[in-house]
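User: what does the whole thing look like in 3D?
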Amino acid sequence: MGWFINIFILLPVLGFVLSLVIPKRNEYLLSWVAFTTVGAQLFSALGFIGYWLFNQHEVLNLKEFSIFKANNYDFYIDFYFDHVTMTYLIIGALLTFIITVYSRYYLHREEGYKRFFNVIMFFYLGYNIVIFSGNLETLFIGWEVLGVSSFLLIAFYRDRYLPVKNAVKVFSIYRIGDVGLILAMWLSHHFWHENISFQKLNNYNLVHEHLAGHSMIGFSIAFLIFISAAAKSAQLPFSSWLPRAMEGPTPSSAIFYGSLSVHMGAFLLMRTYTFWEHQISFRIFVIALGLLTSIIATFTARVQSSVKSQIAYSSISQIGLIFIEIALGLESVALVHVAGNAFLRTYQLLVSPSVVSYKIREQFYNYVPRHKTIEDSWPKRFEYSLYILSLKEWNLDSWMYRRMWNPLKKLGSTWGFLTFKNIYIFFGAIFAIGLFLAINREYISPRWKEYLPVIFAFFGLLLVIKAFTERASVRLSWSLIITNHFAIALAISFNEDFAFSHHVWYLSGVILSGLLGYLVIQRMRNLKEWISLDKFYGHAYEHPKMALLFLLASMGIAGFPITPTFIGEDLIFSHIKEDQILLAFFISMSLIINGLAAIRIYARIFLGPHVKTYHEVAKRSS
Amino acid sequence: MKKSHSGFNLHESLEELKHFLPAQAPLKDFVHHNTLHAFQKDSFFDALNKAHEIFGYKVFLTIDEYRQLYKEGKINEAVLDRVLISKTAEESLTWRDRLINKKYTDQPIGRIGSLRSNWKSFYKIDLDSLVHPILFRIIGSYLDQGISIWNFPSSENGFLDSIKELERNSLVSFFKTERVKSFLIEGKYSVESLLKIVVGDPNLYEQYIFDQQFAHPGWSGIIAVIEENPTSLIDQKKVSLEDLIIFELLLEIDALDEHFGTIWSPLGLKLETLPESLFSDVIVKESTEVKRLWQQAYEWSYYDTVLLGLQKHTLKKEAEEKPSFQGFFCIDDRECSIRRHIELEDKDCRTFGTAGFFNVEFYFQPERSDFRTKVCPAPVTPKYLIKEVENTNRTKSDFHFGKHTHGLLGGWLLTHTLGFWSALRLFFTVFKPSQNAASVTSFSHMDKHSILTIENVNGEMTEDGLQIGFTVEEMANRLEGLLRSTGLLNNFADLVYIVGHGSSSVNNTHYAGYDCGACSGRPGSVNARVISHIGNHPEVRKIMAERGIHIPAETQFIGALHDTSRDEMMYYDLKVLSDVNFAKHNEIKVKFDRALAANAKERSRRFMSINTKKSSVKVHEKVKLRTVSLFEPRPELNHATNTLAVVGRRDFSKNLFLDRRSFMNSYDYKTDPEGNYLLTILNAVAPVCGGINLEYYFSRVDNQNLGAGTKLPHNVMGLIGVANGIDGDLRTGLPSQMIEVHDPLRLMVIVEHFPAVVLDTIKRNPGTYEWFKNEWVKLAVVNPETKEIFVYTNDEFEIYNPVSKEVKMTSNLLAEIESTHENLPVYLIQD
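Assistant: Here's the predicted 3D structure for the full assembly of 1453 residues, as structure tokens:
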């Protein structure tokens, strides 16, 4: 009966594709397609689950096909079904179904009606790929889809400043989570000597045997997975993104940030539980961080004066508890908790505008001047300090900014001499030397063979940092992103098992998307549209098609699963040896920033308040 | 608006600033007002140009939109020609070409913000993004009315002192650097001393704080409102605009210190040339003049047909028989159609329109509440209090709004249990919407069965300086005023309905704006009950008889409430009716019900999701469903499309179909030859209807800056306002869902009287006069004897001959209503 899983992937694909081709003005058909496909999914899921539960309900695994195969490397799509998938399937299908029906009316006449349903369907597709995934590679495809669709939903009101700014912010945190996964995949590849499926993780002896000699790698893999889970579920230190994601129409915030998206971290932990179950130190770590998150988020929720941020922090604190439950091995409790929390927060967000009339009426009839709270009984100094900290969200937002982005900016600004004109000469020279050495490896001493990949990877990293921090030239920034990929490819070439075909996989998508992006930039310049990176230009207002093309180019160049580069990135990592930690670190950093830099260019040129003010343009603070 | 660069007077600058900031009260007291009230001293188009040039607001439709209207025939070519007559003959051709063909590439930016933009150019620092989030968060938490569970500690001594108290007793700080912290704690702050550090040049101080505060007009505006009127908050907080400016300056210095250390030069000293002063003279750009001409043509294309309609409109004079019943309704444009439907149901009834507080002004205090709510027009300060007793209703509660869901362990328990109840609720929310604790219902404003303290003997009972109830004499005065101003002095029917109105909705933060504007954004049910009680009072009738108004003994008044979103009616105190009248009422009620369903059907033509062609009963059910559906952002369209205010007898406009676009005030010129009652009416019509109209106008033409943008992403801040996301500025004005079908035309008040009397009348009250003189509302008069039309321009009445020749006729209004979602033309309804 495993084949039936295909239906659950194909239905959302169908819904998404159909929603793309329906004309913009046909609200009726757009929403109809959305709730019909999701509804069909919901009812077939209920039937399927009923059947499954009455028939031994054993774990199903469905190996689909290999996308790329070489030696002991096999990138294959794999689907999986167990009670965790079951729970997430019901929650996801039910909530998405309700929300699509809800939004059908709620978004009536809204500019971007079609875009909304496109993104919802895209998100829903990603969600299903993740929950049905049978290995990390498949999961990662869905994970990326979730990331991009979240970005697009938060920036749904793309003609205002704050949604765009916050969308980029959230995307950057998701990106950190993504790299956790990439590195986890890399390490686990070396750890298992294959791309292991989740099903095999259920084999206690196998896991135990592998972990015996490599407890450090085991912990590292678990830790990297945890980073990814914590980022997605807004746990410490990433929590501050969740309230900031509440920029889209209320139902989309309700379903994604109230329920589905934010519980994906918990899913990832449950999915990989059998892998870290016996790593007691890791479990203690998860419990500790979950508890800390819960407490801090609870206090933060208590001081929020806006209804959506209050719900966001309450949700975070419950997810902290869910993490604890998972780490304690109480999977069933955690699943019930996930469902209850998802439903409760979704409904709370949906009715959040009603809070005004409800509370005003409540106060009108039962006014209590000032609620005494538990904090009032504490020493004043402690109370006030805690209050200020909670109000400032424990500096989490500014901490991210200062610790992550400011150092990057400093590094980037040291490369001021690079211009669009000289970049090709400069890079061409270095690349030529590199290529020469890579082809003629016999000239290099073994010691240098170890250093060279790291040096070139670091060089690539610097390039992309410059791309990310460039404030003026769009073309320079875009070119640097492309060259970064070449630098990475070069760096890898120094490793023994240099395989040209792998580079083709990796670079074909880069070249294609790089070219597409470049053409869009040129087109904008030819149209005499002023573009630079010093602020948001909002050109999507006049050039929505260019915006879409450039978005595709950005996604492609960021290794999103629409070009072979996606596989290529994984391949690149398979060539990094397990002792080349520094190399893995530089390359993964490159990939984080690379995606960010591309999305940043997209956001700066096409999103935000339109520079042309002949029509109404929103204030920056609105 | 004189301003020169000379020194700085804090007090004056603050007053000036408050004047220009949005004056929108906290959500629960939302009342429509002219968004650009600060410019009202100038004539309309001058004011618009200033607002555009100085503050960068969009004040017209775009030229493309006008051209589209022209193409669609909604701007009449002949009217356009007449508008262009204002130019000389040869110029007129050029202007015509400019209007229709010339391409304009203006990228207008207001002067506001130009001084502060230098932070970015000279210092490479984005101050707003460093300061705004924390500033909004702190001020929002301080003012919060009940969202946070752990409130701002220590908020009794005013905003700055509370911050100081917190800073002094805390191990952590709101600030990142030391200098400002010591300023605050040692009390070394004043706007001037801080501006000296930040700006340096006193000539720029005022402009700087304008720039600074207009970077977040929403928060600044609400603080100015609360400072002025602290009782607009239930949980009162002391706060002032000066405090806000000081705190913002401290945060700015904090951000600058963090980047540059404590030594950096003030902004003013870096500038080589001074920026243009905010309020120096403005020119009228050609593109603005083009829009002005278009706007006039647009307005007159509509006015013209209405005026012609009124001129051609005649009503067969029937012998005045005793009407079957009489009904008073609010002046509100939403009541325009329900009156027509009632009249269609019963040809022998008479309806009247008047401001929906029915001339009884008071505070209302429901039982079990410590608060009073004003139920009369916003500018009036009543001296009376009416209390509700024996209310048996209890409010429903809903755990989704409770604080326990936000606790750690409480949340754990609730998510495991009630979380699944939420799933069920979600399901029903979408598939079977029904009334719940989250809904706002107009009928629950007052319990139907409660008793009101209406009568006061000898003015003795008082509470906090308010007299509880009216004395008989005071009652009579109010009733007399109501009857005389509307011209109902004789020929009373057995039943006189007094119908207030309110609105029901759910998930609607702007619910107060849906209720009766003449009752300060509350339903008019209490007022209707009070005035009916007065009308039925035997002692009052005696006094009325002495004053020449004889109300027959069999006549009885019935108070009622019309729910404008659900199209339902509730009647009050039916037990006082005589048996005969009760039987009559039951017959009339059936007619009302049919009229309500027909009204729902007429309204439904604007709702895309309802098929208007279905039977009125079916459509009515769907219309009702909208008001309890969480997913419905448009329970009703409120005042959208309002453009007219007709002041005259019902016979003046009875057979004219005005498509719910008109406020209607009953008024009989014959009983008021000197215009005394007319003055009272215009005193209310200009600011109330004019205010509504202009708020719709400006929210429509610049929904991003003068309106609230789309309501879909709105997030409730502290129960006082809405913002986008969690760290946006408060949004003022109307959300796009309320204005999208509105045509931005100024209100035209049309009075049935003699021009000389009207001209004399409007000059008697300077406040009212300003509205007309500066043309914020247009004024026309139809001479009741000759039917000549006069239009008020340049402070005199000029005769007006309509451009249009024919008024459309229809004998099948229903077919017209079912035919389109768009505005309908003016029709003469034939029997």
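In plain terms: The longest helix of chain B spans residues 286-312. The radius of gyration of chain B is 28 Å.
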